[in-house]
Amino acid sequence: MKQQRLLVPTLRDVPGDAEAASHRLMLRAGLIRQLSSGIYSYLPLGMKALQHIQTIVREEMDRAGAQEMLMPALHPAELWKASGRWDVYGPELMRLEDRHGREFALGATHEEVITTLVKDEIHSYKKLPVTLYQIQTKFRDERRPRFGLLRGREFLMKDAYSFDRSASGLDASYQAMYEAYVHIFTRCGLQFRAVEADSGAIGGTDTHEFMALADIGEDTIVHCPSCHYAANLEKAIGRITNEPSSLQEASSPSSVHTPGVTSIKQLSQFLAIEPTQIIKSFAVKSQGSPAIVLIRGDLEINEIKLKHVLGVQEVEMLSEAEITALGSVAGFIGPIGLTGCKLIADTSIQGMVNAVVGANTADYHLQHVHVERDLGELTYADVRNVGHGEHCIHCDTELAFARGIEVGHVFKLGTKYSESLGATFTDENGVAEPMIMGCYGIGVSRVLAAVIEQHQDERGIVWPNAIAPFNFHLLTMNVTDEHQLALSEELYTTLQRAGFTVLWDDREERPGVKFNDADLLGFPLRITIGKKANERIVECKERRSGQSYELSVDQLLPHCQSFFK
Amino acid sequence: MKQQRLLVPTLRDVPGDAEAASHRLMLRAGLIRQLSSGIYSYLPLGMKALQHIQTIVREEMDRAGAQEMLMPALHPAELWKASGRWDVYGPELMRLEDRHGREFALGATHEEVITTLVKDEIHSYKKLPVTLYQIQTKFRDERRPRFGLLRGREFLMKDAYSFDRSASGLDASYQAMYEAYVHIFTRCGLQFRAVEADSGAIGGTDTHEFMALADIGEDTIVHCPSCHYAANLEKAIGRITNEPSSLQEASSPSSVHTPGVTSIKQLSQFLAIEPTQIIKSFAVKSQGSPAIVLIRGDLEINEIKLKHVLGVQEVEMLSEAEITALGSVAGFIGPIGLTGCKLIADTSIQGMVNAVVGANTADYHLQHVHVERDLGELTYADVRNVGHGEHCIHCDTELAFARGIEVGHVFKLGTKYSESLGATFTDENGVAEPMIMGCYGIGVSRVLAAVIEQHQDERGIVWPNAIAPFNFHLLTMNVTDEHQLALSEELYTTLQRAGFTVLWDDREERPGVKFNDADLLGFPLRITIGKKANERIVECKERRSGQSYELSVDQLLPHCQSFFK
Fold first, then answer.
1. B21-219+402-452: which CATH topology?
2. Which of A59, A526, A541, B565 has the most CB atoms less than 10 A away?
3. Contact assignment for B74 to A113 by CB distance below 8 Å
């Protein structure tokens, strides 16, 4: 393609509100433009990259035996009411009425539609298992759209749904998708981790998130540098070994006056001890009954784990009045002497000696607390976020932390939708059973942003070969020079005939402008045709390595073929 | 692909509400399923055919120099308000609010979005011309969705928009799209006509509709069998030569008593004359002033032409009271003796002699009317639909009529949107000018239905090679027979390695079921592996010609390669 007429509106300035590198670069390189908050148009170069990702997704999904189809964006409200999600999905689900006043949702996801379809069309075990997928536009009215394509309101998604007759069938379907995802993200050039995730309220069991590693990522990943353990922070577990206390031992807890000292930070300064020697006590309630959660002072409660332990959907903090009613004082809560409420001890306090806890009296704490000796029989549970310094439960290596962008998600749904929507099959014995489902998503447009987030430098994008909008950027230094123009035409034709894609910068612009744009657009190989055109010599520059070298025209094609092999 | 697990839910029965052949066959062959009125899911086979059409569209658009992009479905209301269409588009435009109460339209077309984008990104004549396109889901809340994919509420469309600096530039862009459309529809195997159409209220000038010929089509095409003239009925023109009257001539009009005779049919029976000897008089009003439209008795008024002639947007029929107020009587209106209203004479009455007209008196007509002699100086205009028997104005051949499905539309928009939305460019002299636009649509999903409408027989679909979901249907008569199974496996692999697509019917079904399904699904070549498998002989049947013949396995591949060349 010739650049003169191609709609690639590059920008010199970084738009002020674009926080993520990918967002800035996609705007600067003319890949996308915003139409409304979280809603973007893909310009020709962005579209090409997006199509390369779609092709990879299709090839790997097909290879895994999934069947492509296409479902509508307009969903009758009845389906979402039948599954129960019309009421619980909240304002993220966009809703509208047609000319007859019938309610519709704009598809945020397609469990309802696919389950209803499969219910109507598949009745026998003989037609199972089946995995169906589509690449389709999704609508989610995010409260806070941000980071360009990373969190948008209208976006391109690949969603797949598997239907099996048994749990082991689901395992196999799930595994096939898991492997397809590994291939897809690898081919896209992404550095990623498949992490265990919490299955949350969707009601499934196993679930993995595919996280592209990036500092801008909104999710924290905990992973083991030695074995392959990796999990989302909400799900990750680690092992803590408590060091002996530096405080002098004593035979029983004793009170210490700590006036106005209510935070862990203040307390550790006041007593000159580490936060790891303090036990934090949180007063919470769930379904009306109060509980005290004990956790080591340097660590944070993981609300999702806590809910699982309590077996509830919601947990609230107690108010000051409720804490007083329990016989304690906000800021000085502790496990000793409190009656009438459950104690939940995070495993991080197991074996702590000489610990400090709240005294349930204003301005006092207790020190010299030995957990095993002084707190009676505790119910231990893992209710914390893994902290720095924790070790892998599989291989005891110290765990590492990273930030990630969720680009994919595989999920064992089980029978939630098949039961609520009546998707059953008849087995060999004529017995009707609910189909066992899995669902599998890839944020196709988000992958594009994640690729750029990982592949860029201070000058612009550095495309992986498989995703680059064009293989080559052909730069003619002086389009009014006969030799340069003739050689450019020749190479433009030759390279395209050889199956490569070429963007020819045929603009009447200064070399500096062309070089800057070429770096910004970041195609793998730049070929510059300048003064040596009459000697049939061109300059070749690799965007990623920065290496540049002169080649004769005769050498060029073999060189390119090996470069892109 | 193997049929056992593929989601191809064929139906034996024709769904009762499906009127169009394509709709019936797409349901029966398991290509689509309805989710809601006018809203469909594409199942795997339908999806494959749809993708083949998309590939053809992309290739031809790219070849014509158009650039692919992708715009959102959610359009901020402000854009539609700026163009003035928010208010005039009516209930076909689906509307919704986001969580913050901001209004959006679901894109029914993208003139507003593309014009705003181009306005922001292109400022100089140097970047023009440019033609941008997308293949994208459109939403139009049709009052009466029908015929399956032919008139849906959510459908796939290719829309393109050209931006030029001059009218001659637009001519060239328009011509490039026109030619691309000819290639696209030809490659899709459609019988079609590019017909002149009325540019209507959109405000453009030239426009052509691409009509796939089909009896189910909602549009009437008038075309000349000799020259290449073809037009939509609303736009078509023809030539009429009036025969001399069979009534005895008289020197002046005379009254005839026609009690209760108010229709052309009654009048022609009552007087024993042809409708071609009667002049119909319609009383209409536009912008408050009345007019009488005169047209030959066998012909119909073309409202669009009439509005053009009157230079108005709306025309109404006069009420009985208004007719009385004019000094006439409903059912007996005529041109003679009426004052205070304009006469508009369709060219079909030119030269009529011995004609019959209403007498403006209850139960009376006038006969022996000679138009030239008795009606004074008339303003002639073409305000009729072309009637049967009219002749081509270019070559005088009698015009023919056909029904068509509108599959494409090319349109010279001019500056309607660039002016209302402020899309200007600066010319060589630094003067700002509005860009001159064209828009070009193809109903991608409608093309799929039109292809099936044209390519089917009583047994099922007869796919054109370029669109067929699979090249081959490989039928194994007895999947429990070792020889048949082995040979099927071998051919399945061989044909796919050779680059063909194969659906292998590996189901445990009776031969009759398999043959019927193969006819219904209608792939170009059916290969049946039966009892002669051990001799390595298969049966090959061409779906279109119905020819079948035996081939040895060695002959098969060369035969297929030449068949699909």
1. BirA Bifunctional Protein; domain 2 (3.30.930)
2. A526
3. no
